[in-house]
Amino acid sequence: MTSKTENNTTKSLSEDTTKLFDSWLAADGPVALRLRQKLLPVEADESGRGVIFPPTYADIGYNIDTLADGTRVAAIDTVGSQANRLEPIFKSAGKDVDGNELNALASLVPQIEIVLHKGGGKKGNKQQDGGDGHIEKRSLLDLAHRSADAVVLASPTLAPEIAKAFEALRNTGNAALLAAIAPTSLIFGVWDSRGGTGEKRPRLVRSIIRAWDVEVLHSAAQFNSVWKALSQEQQQELEKEAKSKKIKLSVKGFQDAPATFRDDARKERVLGGVLAGGSIERDVTVNLVALRGIRGGNPAETTQVQKYLLGLALLAANADLELFLREGCLLRYANDDTWTAVPRRGEPTGVRFPKQDELIAYAAVAAAPFKAKWPKDTAGNALPLEHNFDLAAAKKLLAKKDENAPAEPQ
Predict the structure, then answer these.
(1) CA–CA dist 176, 183 (Å, integer)
(2) Where are the domains of the chain?
(3) Torsional class of 224: left (φ above 0), alpha (ψ -120 to 50), beta (otherwise)
(4) 86: part of which helix (H) or strand (E)?
(5) How far apart, in whole angstroms, are the C-alpha atoms of residue 114 and residue 58?
(6) Which residues contact residue 263 at a Cβ distance below 8 angstroms, ignoring those fewer than 6 apart?
(7) Distance between CA 284 and CA 339 in Å, rounded?
(8) 334-361: b or e for each residue (b if 16 or more CB lie within 10 Å)?
(9) In terms of C-beta density within 10 A (0-12 exposed, 13-18 middle, 19 or more buried), how is residue 268 classed?
(10) Beta 112-118 vs 385-388: how paired, if at all?
């Protein structure tokens, strides 16, 4: 079935756009496309200064580096986190009554889902054991390690296909098989660290958000429970019960929890975000050198693979992400995007980046040879790409010794 979206967007594909994209794939083309976006906190003052909350890590708190000149730079969203936010833009949002994808980008990549279990998975709970009709699934586009994820390796009907694709990459450099099954693994990077090949592919799209010239702030909170409103008898009974159970009343929310704020207890202070005195920037890079290094089984297939991946990469790089990154970190775009092409030598030059409908149109045409390989029924309609997670297969993975697997932290 051909979607309405595909028909409509194909008509908007101009010759100039095709020539521009072909020039980016040419051997003498630029080494990269780069987008630098200035971001602002929604609560920024007139000068653009505002408080935002970076991600918090175990042991180190915020990830802040101090440069030689004393400037403090905070990681607001890492490369890995950005990739995990971008990949689901290709995820299905459902279909209309005619069977067309509501999300135009979803028609460009296989919508592979892994069925983890039926119901809530709690033993002995009939309602959660499939009785309510609930089926727990995960899209391949949501998995942390993409096509090399452990859940994929423990899915008997999917694992052999992925293994074959990685073997082709490793042995002959042919990326066509993986592009037909899991193209976003080639866009956002993948490492078959637990499979049989150890094949590693770099990201074609790299994005990161940093805040410059930051000052760390702290917060404190006072929890006031209902304790004072209880009668003396109620308080005594609760104190007696808590003592017998060897638990603090405040742990269960029955007593106040005052904040402590002492100079000799700085490690106990609660982080309260950072004040960004400098700019907050999002850097996006499309690695054209890595893209041109990807091959198919022959020259014609190489061209097909590169055009397909370029179309997906440009859509990902140009995506207008929602910038609600976490509690206390809601950002917005400060101005229009400015793209530059980075040459091998010389200064970067500005480029007229095509509009969204042109990007989708190009990607739809480039996706056609790979969509032809997706499973279909006798009427030519795409079949659901579902695979079952197998617990026995997962247990075998635990027993397997793999030299390529990352070392466990000491």
Answers:
(1) 9
(2) 32-41+78-208+294-399, 222-258
(3) beta
(4) helix 79-86
(5) 31
(6) none
(7) 9
(8) eeeeebbbbeeeeeeeebebbebebbbb
(9) exposed
(10) parallel
What pLDDT shows up at residue 236?
94
Question: What number of helices (H) and strands (E) belong to the chain?
Answer: 12, 17
Q: Which of 215, 323, 223 is nearest to 273 (CA)?
A: 215
Q: Each residue of 70-82: pLDDT tens digit?
A: 999 999 999 999 9
Q: What angle do CA 22, 90, 143 make, to 5 degrees?
A: 120
In 3D space, the residue among 364, 286, 217, 317 whose CA is nearest the CA of residue 31 turns out to be: 286
362, 363, 366, 371: CA torsion to nearest 10: -140
Q: Which residue is associated with the tokens 């459902």?
A: 94
CA gap 270, 266 in Å, rounded: 9
Contact 178, 147 (CB under 8 A): yes
DSSP for 367-383? HHHHHTTS-B-TTSPBP
DSSP 262-273: -GGGGGGSEEEE
Q: Residue with structure tokens 């970076």?
A: 54
Angstrom distance (rounded) from CA 286 to CA 353 = 13
Q: Could you give the CA distance from residue 90 to residue 39 in angstroms, rounded to a whole number?
A: 24
Nearest to 280 by CA among 70, 37, 35: 37
CB atoms within 10 A of CB 214: 24
Q: Name which of 56-60, 278-282, 391-395 the model is least confident about.
A: 56-60
More confident residue, 221 or 86: 86
Q: For 391, phi and psi rounded to 5 degrees?
A: -65, -40
Instruction: Please say whether the beta carbons of 349 and 340 come within 8 A.
Output: yes
Sign of CA dihedral 313, 79, 115, 162: positive
pLDDT of residue 4: 42
